[in-house]
């Protein structure tokens, strides 16, 4: 994470001071670098705190100032007391190397570069003066584009010699990326609060020991009214190592700040999206969010698993067989690699060759129309591979699969249903025009497809019978997308990968038409005459195309629908429509 973490202190003699800061340097690792080292001398073009600059990393004493540049001078030695100083004079600071990312975490009292020194100095002053919480202890966010954005957490440290028996400190995190810093608020708050609690715990032990040995409250009350600072015999300023009785304090803080910068940078990652997310991506993300909520509910309950006679229906994919990383992809297959190796149908072109052109067209027509597709077979992997191939023709939100069941399931529960051969299908389903049945039987001849397949994935032992109560006539035009899919499958110049990309483009084209129709009919409530004109403009006035658009409308994401409805309800949109 390109940021600077700093510990600041409000000195009673000199005001706000930066005690200790850790910054990120992006540069190639030197040979043999490992662990925490000090005293590095090297010249490099580096990026400090997210700002590109040329600077020298050199050993220096914090008392000498952050830089020799007069434009950004550090505090002179005469302007520093024990309370303003962290590292001893001549101490080179601390450096940690991250071998994985070639990043260095450098800690010293002040940043080397004058510009960074000015930014940290201003953030320090604001965090200990005007930008504070009620009660002067707690987190706050402030900043601007010019001087960076700051997460600041102020706190008190016990000191028996200080005014009010406590001193004021703050830990600040400075970044140029406002959104990233705001999104990191919960993480930074928890970790910085842990560092503060540890410092306060150590200081409290020292404070209680000193009070037990020599109570300061009674001594001050019995002392004559003289200038307060002179009462403490010159001990107005005490170092943080003295207050906590920890000689390794700065090394520990360097380790904590370096880990904080690395962990905060690792927990959030940026992903490049080429254009707006597709509907399939939005639906996948919504399903993952729903699954996460359900799993959190299951953690606190003692529910037993559902019996096998009631298979779970997962819309769009079977998440239990697909990792979250792959399921976010719009072309994610629902079966894992092991099933893929056993799959019989490798692609739509492969299935068309096996079933034949007419049978495949009938099957594809029912799939695109949203009718129930039933496969009866003994081989579960065969059924799963068939669904895995057929579902690529539909948007993710339109897919509801029961991979294999021992009883018939109604069409409202699934549009892809796998059944074992002995399951009885109701007669009204067999004669229905809204269902298609594919029966996988043992082949009557020893070799039906001797040239199409290799020995590992041979289909010569199967015979496929496709039947429906409403067979698709050979001369029927059918939906436009089906004709384009068949044209791509029959074009031998196109590889399987190219055909897959054609499918993605075709689905996105027709999902855009679905979005226009949804807004026109469901949101704007236009009359039927206008709807017919719109369908003609979209090139979808035919009956099959209209049915397809209405079915695909059910696959729109909740995000898109809620966005449209919220836009309609807003006053500005209603005025523009009027």
From TrEMBL:
Positions of the UniProt region annotated as Disordered: 32-82, 293-320
Localisation per UniProt entry: Cell projection, Cilium; Cytoplasm, Cytoskeleton, Microtubule organizing center, Centrosome; Cytoplasm, Cytoskeleton, Spindle; Cytoplasm, Cytosol
Domain of life: Eukaryota
Biased composition (Acidic residues): 296-305
Pfam families in UniProt: Folliculin, Folliculin_C
Domain UDENN FLCN/SMCR8-type: 85-557
GO terms under biological process: intracellular signal transduction; negative regulation of signal transduction; negative regulation of transcription by RNA polymerase II; positive regulation of TORC1 signaling; positive regulation of transforming growth factor beta receptor signaling pathway
Quaternary data: Interacts (via C-terminus) with FNIP1 or FNIP2 (via C-terminus). Component of the lysosomal folliculin complex (LFC), composed of FLCN, FNIP1 (or FNIP2), RagA/RRAGA or RagB/RRAGB GDP-bound, RagC/RRAGC or RagD/RRAGD GTP-bound, and Ragulator. Interaction with FNIP1 or FNIP2 mediates indirect interaction with the PRKAA1, PRKAB1 and PRKAG1 subunits of 5'-AMP-activated protein kinase (AMPK). Interacts with HSP90AA1 in the presence of FNIP1. Interacts with HSP70, STUB1, CDC37, AHSA1, CCT2, STIP1, PTGES3 and PPP5C.
PANTHER family (UniProt xref): FOLLICULIN, FOLLICULIN FAMILY MEMBER
Protein name per the record: Folliculin
Source organism: Corythaeola cristata
Underlying gene: Flcn
